[in-house]
Design goal:
Elements: H1 12-22, E1 30-31, H2 33-40, H3 44-57, E2 60-63, E3 66-69, H4 74-84, H5 86-101, E4 104-111, E5 114-121, E6 136-138, H6 143-150, H7 154-161, H8 177-190, E7 193-196, E8 203-211, E9 217-226, H9 232-259
Antiparallel strand pairs: 1-3, 2-3, 4-5, 4-9, 5-6, 7-8, 8-9
Organism: Nonomuraea ferruginea
Protein name: Helix-turn-helix domain-containing protein
Domain HTH iclR-type: 11-71
Length: 266
């Protein structure tokens, strides 16, 4: 069945192929044809053709009586990160920050009411929620998301948060409008954001904005810690100054990078 509210140039077959890829959720690495058809709402013959096409292209493979995605699917997300150039610019700064805080650090951008992780340098620690490139969380309950939401005009914040989250996470902190606006005003006033187990138990983080040469917020960078190991005082008094220094360095390098014409040799 064709989708409603799509334009004349909408390619239904491409949309169905992406639906099949997205059907493979955490905990479901292998899915039968019937499971894929049920999850996507597609007829079995359609789902089968898509899975076989993905297999021929190297994005899926037959496995254990069903189908599984291959690591090549990662290229789809990495293409976005590489096209931005942000990872190349940020990596040495994130590594410097992680070496001094001994905590993980990530960069995320806003996608609807969620944040999506686009760069990360991690340290091996047991945390409540697993994070990797492409992971998404509800924006309002993360330090990264608070920074990104605080950079938007109030009317835009309302529009963005009206979109349903696609993260599959139910956050612990679900504020009303007044509490939410107060929290974002505080972020604007301070220039950084803190979350203390608002998304899930055990997760505590602080984040700062990354800006382009015009001062626009293009992403956010954080230091993420386990609440049982790192106090709020240590996070804000020891790690925050290092984070702010890192954010400034990445922003400066990004501004220079973006100002240089990118030429591809033929």
């Amino acid at each position: 069945m064709a989708r409603a509210d799509t334009g004349p140039d909408f390619i239904e077959a491409l949309a169905r192929g992406l639906d099949v890829i997205k059907a493979f959720q955490p905990g479901r690495p292998v899915m039968t044809l019937t499971e894929v058809a049920t999850a996507t709402g597609l007829a079995r013959p359609t789902a089968r053709r898509i899975l076989l096409t993905l297999s021929e292209l190297g994005y899926a493979r037959a496995e254990q009586g069903g189908f599984a995605l291959t690591p090549r699917v990662l290229e789809l997300g990495v293409s976005y990160v590489r096209s931005m150039g942000l990872w190349e610019v940020a990596r040495p700064h994130l590594e410097w920050l992680v070496a001094r805080t001994h905590e993980s650090s990530s960069i995320a951008q806003l996608d609807g009411s969620d944040i999506v992780y686009v760069a990360r340098v991690a340290v091996p620690k047991i945390v409540t929620l697993s994070v990797q490139i492409g992971t998404r969380f509800p924006a309002l309950q993360t330090s990264l998301g608070k920074v990104l939401l605080a950079a938007l005009p109030p009317a835009e914040v309302e529009r963005v948060l009206a979109e349903p989250s696609r993260s599959g996470i139910t956050p612990r902190w679900r504020p009303g409008r007044e509490e939410r606006e107060s929290a974002l005003r505080a972020v604007r006033a301070k220039g950084w954001a803190l979350t203390d187990e608002e998304l899930a138990l055990g997760i505590r983080s602080v984040a700062a904005p990354l800006r382009d040469g015009m001062g626009n917020v293009i992403a956010a960078v954080n230091v993420n810690a386990h609440a049982a190991e790192t106090s709020v005082e240590k996070l804000t008094e020891e790690h925050l100054p290092l984070l702010l220094k890192t954010a400034g360095a990445i922003s400066a390098d990004w501004s220079q990078y973006a100002a240089v014409p990118q030429v591809t040799a033929s």
